[in-house]
Amino acid sequence: MEARPPDVRLLEAQKAYDEGMRLKDAGQYKNAVPHIERALELREAALGGVHLEVASCLQLLGEAQRFQGNHTHAEPLFERALAIREGALGKDHPDVARSLNSIALFYQGQGQYGRAEPLYARALAIREGALGKDHPDVAASLNNLANLYIDQGQYGRAEPLYARALAIREGALGKDHPDVAASLNNL
Length: 187
Description:
Elements: H1 6-25, H2 29-47, H3 52-67, H4 71-89, H5 94-109, H6 113-131, H7 136-151, H8 155-173, H9 178-186
């Protein structure tokens, strides 16, 4: 069999990735997995195992596995995506914060709050440093950390984080944005 040029593999990989994303977003996690796995396989073959596009596939595949409750499959995918992003972008890049957030959500979903909290805190610090204290992604990190505190019954720690997230979202997005409504609901 003749090898296809990398650009053809990457086009095929992008189509598979997009379909996997569409299915994951539609809640069809089991159907999404083969598409994402195919995208991962093609990207690794074309780009090598430590490329940022490989990290994106690992991240998406980890999310699809987490939503299905396949924890033993999800965790190493998230960890590998984080390692690639830290290696390629440095430890203080917003994409690293995204990986940290995914791992923290994973741990939170398993009730491993002590493992989740420092990851959420690090993601928040990265976003504040890289994006500024009034960026909507900072509000998302505040919200995630507050949700963790709510899960633990630590309402006094959650409330100021929710209030700050609301203020950021109102300032950045306007009072009628759906993310503002979500913050009001959380508060």
